[in-house]
Design brief:
Blueprint (H helix, E strand, L loop, with lengths): L4 E2 L6 H8 L3 H15 L22 E5 L5 H8 L3 E6 L2 H14 L4 E4 L17 E6 L10 H14 E12 L9 E9 L2 E9 L8 E12 L8 E10 L3 H8 L5 E8 L16 E8 L2
Parallel strand pairs: 1-10, 2-3, 2-5, 3-4, 5-6
Antiparallel strand pairs: 6-12, 7-8, 8-9, 9-10, 11-12
Helix pairs in contact: 2-3
């Protein structure tokens, strides 16, 4: 039986980034489409100096709580949008800043929790962000109802009226009695990385779900070298559809205007009451 070294993959972000970077372009395009379809028009933009052809004439201002390695922020910045993010991991933020420098793009990041941050000086002289997103269940790190509601409130405070918050949440399956496994494999330069995440059955009464991530990283430039093996464990808060609806009612300024799945396909909407477990909610600030 191989031995796995305990580690916090948020403080060792390169492996995390290699695994989850594959869908960055698709996810960025989906978020742009969500804004085009569900956001209401913004006030006329402030006059700006002339820009290069690579920058859009009407860029969005985009906020990402729990921004991690900045992969989506850098992608949006390269598409001409103005981006800001917050995260609690200094390792992730350091990686994000280096990524912005390497890609020659601009992004503002702040070390802060997703349920309590202040970015009201960004963007200056603007009514608020056009788009905010927590796309891949990071919201479930918030362990209490108060923290989850505070996150909704804080994000809403930073949105302009008519802007949208795109929130990805995996719903608990009440019929799940065994462990579930997800596995990804990706390669960057000489690193081949396999990530396996095991989810334990949800504790619906205690509102918890335990997860274990195992990373096997191999340097393919050194034949015969032993791979590095790492393990990380954490706990998510669980949600049923009913519990999620109850939470959304705690921030009445946000209106639920659309639902999609983790396939991130704007042409395939679903509903909060359907059979899909991986849900992406579109919440629009109404006031």
């Amino acid at each position: 039986m191989p031995t796995y070294e305990p580690f916090d993959w948020y403080e060792t972000p390169v492996y995390y980034d290699i695994i989850f970077d594959a869908d960055t372009g698709k996810q960025a395009a989906f978020l742009e489409q969500c804004h085009a379809k569900h956001a209401q028009p913004a006030p006329p933009p402030m006059p700006t100096p002339s820009r290069s052809d690579t920058v859009r004439s009407n860029p969005l201002t985009i906020l990402e709580p729990a921004c991690g390695t900045g992969r989506l922020m850098a992608e949006f910045a390269a598409r001409g949008h103005r981006v800001a993010g917050v995260d609690l991991s200094e390792g992730m933020l350091h990686f994000a800043r280096k990524r912005f420098k390497d890609r020659c793009v601009r992004g503002s990041v702040l070390k802060a929790p997703m349920q309590g941050f202040d970015l009201h000086d960004f963007p200056k002289k603007q009514p608020g962000f056009d788009l905010a997103h927590i796309l891949v269940s990071s919201f479930k790190y918030l362990q209490t109802e108060d923290d989850a509601a505070a996150c909704l409130r804080c994000v809403c405070d930073h949105l302009r009226v008519g802007g949208i918050f795109v929130l990805g949440v995996h719903i608990a399956d009440p019929d799940e009695t065994g462990n579930t496994l997800e596995r990804w494999r990706a390669r960057r330069d000489n690193l081949d990385v396999i990530c396996t995440i095991r989810s334990s059955p949800p504790d619906l009464k205690g509102r918890t779900e335990h997860l274990r991530s195992r990373i096997v990283a191999r340097d393919i430039s050194t034949p015969g070298a032993e791979p590095k093996r790492y393990e990380s464990n954490w706990t998510f808060r669980t949600y049923t559809g009913r519990q999620l609806k109850s939470l959304l009612r705690k921030e009445p300024r946000l209106k639920h205007v659309g639902t999609y799945t983790f396939h991130h396909d704007i042409n395939t909407p679903t509903t909060l009451d359907g059979d899909d477990l991986g849900l992406v909610l579109i919440l629009r600030r109404e006031q």
